[in-house]
């Protein structure tokens, strides 16, 4: 059975596609979609690419792509054109895969996106039926809604969501295995201007694996940058660990094999939800110790060196956010470095309280796990050093904090904190550092501020 026969779906035949830009992503997308039974017309400004594909040959080097293109061209499912307007008029969905190179300052160069968008918009002006424009090119959040959709509306004289739809459908293809990645995706993400368009674009991937997400357009734009930045971070982290291990005479792969075996904390969703700064008796201390070890062995580790710098910036953002509110009476819920403990060592909440008090704010703190009468040993020494007047600001009375504060800072997800925030009145501004349950609904109201989310 050929690749085309294997992936073809009878229901797909009703939707005709045009693909603008036949580089790496566009060529693979066009060939794979055609192999699934969609009639596809490819469009490119480069006559050499058009000529290659017209003869059933691939303009890109990639595993399996040569055979796939030969089959879909021979079957007639993939054709090519140098006429953008004709391609739009002959299709139901246009997928834009043009390049988005870096601008001189590091930003996004959108000239190819704009040119393709203007061509598509001009064609839509003469088309009576509903059409969906899908951007598969990588672009920063805001590009579609602030630049591309207005250009489409201007060129077509039509309205998005009414006369035509727009979706952002980022690709997650790795060079060397892109055909496999397309047909076995890690996930499918569709940012939609309207439900009709999102449903149609999502249907292009019926039968393929992986979770599916239909989201607002800017979310879909952001996802690809998060993925690639994390991939880059992982490479940098792995290489720096390797350099430190080499300086110590250790087998870095033996070390990392153990690290990778932990799928509960290391290779997992743990610690990846945006929130407040980290603290406690382990993370800051161990990062500092590893950086010191690298320094004394003359190993530069800029990724690791900036972990604590980044953490400090989150703390500063919280302080700046409170200052920007212009209110002086502050109530803080949660003082320990994480819920379920009374450990105050290097707690970012203690540091936040100390900085606000130092700036003259009238602060009252409530943490059920950190009652002054229960502070012993190192905890007592720690808190008396940073907050010597703790007896004046620490209470176990939630109502006392609610009555006192104009600004409530939620630094814990404990049930008592959730209940307290639920009781907050219109006179309170809530600064949520931990994304309390129901935060998405609360943030639509006035007087509710999230940090980092």
What does this entry look like structurally?
- By secondary structure, this protein is α/β, with parallel strands linked by helices.
- 46% of the residues lie in helices and 13% in strands.
- The protein has helices at residues 3-7, 24-35, 47-54, 65-75, 84-89, 111-124, 143-156, 178-183, 195-203, 217-247, 252-261, 283-296, 302-305, 307-325, 348-358, 377-386, 390-393, 398-404, 415-422, 439-442, and strands at residues 17-20, 40-43, 78-81, 93-96, 131-135, 164-168, 188-192, 212-215, 329-333, 362-366, 394-395, 407-410, 429-432, 448-450.
- Strands 3-2-1-4-5-6-7-8 form an 8-stranded mixed β-sheet, with helices on both faces. The chain has a 6-stranded parallel β-sheet with strand order 11-10-9-12-13-14, with helices on both faces.
- Strand 5 (131-135), helix 7 and strand 6 form a beta-alpha-beta unit.
- Helix 10 crosses helix 11.
- The longest helix is centred in the middle third of the chain and has 31 residues, at 217-247.
